[in-house]
């Protein structure tokens, strides 16, 4: 069950990333809110390195191998999404702010995200830091996807498949770490993620219905 839920989460998030890449390239936009992307990318890069080279979560066997492989795939996909952000994101940069600040601002967000990940590790250790930071930034992503939909006033860079895959990709580790392994923090944040993910799915369903009328 542990390996199944881990792989289900990995597959769900790979679909999310694939959709972000497909929509970003097809529609010439970026599909993942940037703060969420920065936190995800730095999380995956740091924990991929720490698991493979430092053995942060123990010997690479069973579940740790599965998670390490999934993390590496996520890093590669996130790098492509990051490319779409830098290529197409400037058009959504506030007009009152100089466009020259787009790249420095984006790099600052990436640096801040990496430092936050390292701060979590320093405070909680690799095991709890990985869980807590992952679920907290996942909750932020759930809210930011809704904000992205509202601010764009359309389904640009978004799809129902992406929304459902994100929900399932988060629900699987919520069951694993929050219920089976029972961690009240993970369970609480995971449930909130589901609440906002379902709201996001409902918003997209309504928008798609309006567009088809």
UniProtKB/TrEMBL annotation:
GO CC aspect terms: membrane
Main localisation: membrane
GO molecular function, one term: lyase activity
Transmembrane intervals: 30-50, 62-86, 98-120, 126-148, 160-180, 186-205
Membrane topology, as annotated: Multi-pass membrane protein
Native source species: Hespellia stercorisuis DSM 15480
Localization annotation: Membrane
Keyword Membrane attached: yes
Protein name: PQ loop repeat-containing protein
Matches recorded under PANTHER family: PTHR42038, TERPENE CYCLASE AUSL (PTHR42038:SF2)
Claim: Cytoplasm is one of the keywords in the record: no
Domain of life: Bacteria
